[in-house]
Amino acid sequence: MEAFERNDISLSKSLSRDNGALEPNIYEMIGEEGFTRLTRAFYAQVPGDEILAPMYPADDLVGAEERLRDFLVGRFGGPPRYIEQRGHPRLRMRHAPFPIDQQARDRWMELMTRALAEADLPQEVQQFMLHFFGGTATFTINR
Predict the structure, then answer these.
(1) I want to staple 76 with a disulfide (CB 3.0 to 4.6 A). Which of 6, 26, 54, 82 is the partner?
(2) Alpha-carbon distance 114 to 111, whole Å?
(3) What domains sit in the chain, N to C, each tagged with a CATH number?
(4) Residue-wise over 119-139: b if at least 16 C-beta within 10 A, else e?
(5) pLDDT single digits (tens) 75-119
């Protein structure tokens, strides 16, 4: 691990699991609470959204929020609870039952962008996560 200073924020860098490039250890920067704020802000918007709400069973919104939080925590350097409880994420397979087209992808990104701002995360974290979410959301398009 390599530590350095940039914009008055001490960052720890670790090797990315995706492509070997260095990426910030988001978990060290925002902790469990940052991911909780993010997922709470995202899922607070879902029930009122005409595109996304039908994809989320109303009686499982809490479960969906926990699964996303656990996935993000593990993906960005925290405890691997998601993998321990559910195995490999297999995002395309897990999202296959839901009709995800470009419009749904864009709406998901719109809500997540608002959630990132509402969660009051450092700007560097918001930018990095927006890039990650953009690619991941595109990857789940299945219609």
Answers:
(1) 26
(2) 5
(3) 31-139 (1.10.490.10)
(4) bebbeebbebbeebbeebbee
(5) 999 999 999 999 998 999 998 999 999 999 999 999 999 999 999
